[in-house]
Amino acid sequence: MLDHIGFPVSNYVQSLEFYKKVLGTLGYELVMEVDDGASASGAHAGFGKDGRPQFWITEGQPIVGRLHVAFSAVDEAAVDDFYAAAIAASASDNGPPGLRPHYHPNYYGAFVFDPDGHNIEAVCHDAGRL
């Protein structure tokens, strides 16, 4: 359904380093960075796989309210690694790794608040089946 998503962050450098560390645990990497000289709306960083940016952060005025973004993880260990990296990178806990059977029996996720307070999740939908 979605091709990509992006949102502004209050501190571009801090968020760039945060997402490099956290998304790296899920196999995503910084694919493209556009500096503020090449874009009228400030610096942009695009993360993804196989050279395709699908998640973008942009320097600017952060959105009002809390955004929820869930990233796919290949297995439970990747969810655990995501959570550990996020907490080490100064994220706030919003739900440690574990099964969430109220979503479905094999839903294994972890939730953190990023530097701007957005609810960021890693989820594996095959928990216990691997």
TrEMBL record:
Protein name: Glyoxalase
Pfam families in the cross-refs: Glyoxalase (PF00903)
Signal peptide residues on this chain, from the entry's feature table: none
InterPro entries: Glyas_Bleomycin-R_OHBP_Dase (IPR029068), Glyas_Fos-R_dOase_dom (IPR004360), VOC_core (IPR037523)
Annotated organism of origin: Alsobacter metallidurans
Domain VOC: 1-125
Highest taxon in the source lineage: Bacteria
